[in-house]
Amino acid sequence: MGLLRLILAISVLISHSAPFLKLKFVGGVIAVQVFYIISGFYMTLILNEKYVGRGSYRLFLSNRFLRLYPIYWVVLILTISFSILCAIVFDGPSDITFKIKYFNMMSLETKIFQILANIFLFGQDIVMFLGLDTEKGTMFFTNNYAMTTPQFHNNLFLNQTWTLGIELMFYVIAPFIVRRSYKL
């Protein structure tokens, strides 16, 4: 099962690099959907086999969070550091200057949401449904985030991690779904 998930992850990577490498595999959308289906099955298996008994929910969550957060924070810090370094060395517009420009336009609530989403991953999936009103500095829901200017999701330092927000929400609710009583 791990090999299949690896192949699916590689196919997502290939679909994102298609404009550059002219490669095509399964397709990113299908690969992500199949990956989530397999992960749901795998998490159910793990919850029923490994995390049984008193304190298992807390152990499950701590193991999942420890699996994701340390590497995420390392990559986040490296990305921010590299962006700042590029802005200083090349002395011109960069990804970090774009983020600072629009961050300064945001209302306090929007800034807090953006900071927390970048640090804790929760809410990064919601960003894909939001736009930024540059006059008021507020967020608004949109049916096509790609058509908004500026694109609010570009304020995430690691755009690809929106999937981790979904994954974390699944980890929080999965034990309740898997272990619900049949009467419910």
Please explain how this structure is put together.
- The protein has 184 residues and is mainly α.
- It has six helices and two strands.
- Strands 1-2 form a two-stranded antiparallel sheet.
- α1 (2-21) packs antiparallel against α2 (28-49), α2 runs parallel beside α6 (162-178) and α3 (56-90) packs antiparallel against α6.
- It is globular.
- The mean pLDDT is 85.
Keywords:
single chain; 184 residues; mainly alpha
Secondary structure: elements and pairs:
Blueprint: H1 2-21, H2 28-49, H3 56-90, H4 95-105, H5 108-120, E1 130-133, E2 138-141, H6 162-178
Antiparallel strand pairs: 1-2
Helix pairs in contact: 1-2, 2-6, 3-6
- Helix tally equals 6
Which consecutive residue ranges, at least 5 long each, have pLDDT under 50?
none
Q: Strand-and-helix sequence, N→C? A: HHHHHEEH
Class inferred from helices and paired strands: mainly alpha
- DSSP strand count: 2
Q: For the CA atoms, what is the radius of gyration?
A: 19 Å
Q: Classify the helix fraction into a percent range.
A: 55-70%
Through-space gap between termini:
31 Å
Q: What does the main sheet amount to?
A: 2 strands, antiparallel
Strand order of the largest sheet: 1-2
- What's the rounded overall pLDDT mean? 85
Portion in beta strands: under 5%
Q: What's the shape?
A: globular
Question: Would you kindly provide a brief summary of this structure?
Answer:
The chain is mainly alpha-helical and 184 residues long. The chain has helices at 2-21, 28-49, 56-90, 95-105, 108-120, 162-178, and strands at 130-133, 138-141. The protein is globular and about 55 Å long.
